[in-house]
Amino acid sequence: MKLTLEIWRQAGPTQEGAFETVQVPDAVPQMSILELLDHVNNRLVGENKEPFMFASDCREGICGTCGLMVNGRPHGPGQNTPACQQRLVGFSEGDVVKLEPLRSAAFPVIKDMVVDRSALDRVMEKGGYVSINAGTAPDADTLHLNHEVAELALDHAACIGCGACVAACPNGAAHLFTGAKLVHLSLMPLGKEERGKRARHMVDDLETNFGHCSLFGECADVCPAGIPLTAVAAVTKERARAAFRGKDD
User: Fold this and answer.
1) Where are the alpha helices (DSSP H) in the chain?
2) Radius of gyration of the CA atoms of the chain, in A
3) Which structural domain range is residue 137 located in?
4) Dihedral of CA 160/162/163/169: which sign?
5) What is the pTM of this model?
6) Closest CA to 218 of 209, 205, 227
7) Which of 47, 65, 66, 245 is the most buried (most CB within 10 A)?
8) 93 and 146 in one domain?
């Protein structure tokens, strides 16, 4: 299968970038987006040319490292699927495929398609943890949690922090990401101790580094973990609860 690729090339954070055209005459429909880039880079290395930089790790849809834009959409045309699992079977002979980094003011480009997503890490640092006394782990049976609540918590804990929701949002909001973390930890027994403090600190950092959510819904459409749009409501709910209950919660 012949494809024409428009791939973003940028030497560094302070350099101007531009698209570079690459012809691929022998793409295979079963290739993933990342395998296509591997194929291109192998050829470039063989020609003593600089390969394109992009991020990846597990390539199993778990780690969230592989975020990039494919024809203007985070990860690719497939709904709720990471780039490492997006196959070329959805493209046709002669198609033009544009590959570029996740686009958001919160994600500055490091090089080519590699971006700095540490803004998400900073949100997590503000409250994405639980504080417990170190020592012998408590018996699991002493922490009562019914099945329905546990499943709901796990559904939100599935967020892999890839940043696709931020890149998809016209405002560059990270409310789906933050809301997923707040819901997950608010439902777990060990996470309830610092519920109010967590909400205040995480939402304050969210509003400092990301845009305002206007409920467009594009975030849930591209989320590889399938985090529901209802997670966005948790940001306002948890912050309002913390304000009502005071600083001691």
Assistant:
1) 33-46, 118-125, 147-157, 164-168, 175-187, 195-209, 218-222, 231-245
2) 20
3) 117-245
4) negative
5) 0.92
6) 227
7) 66
8) no
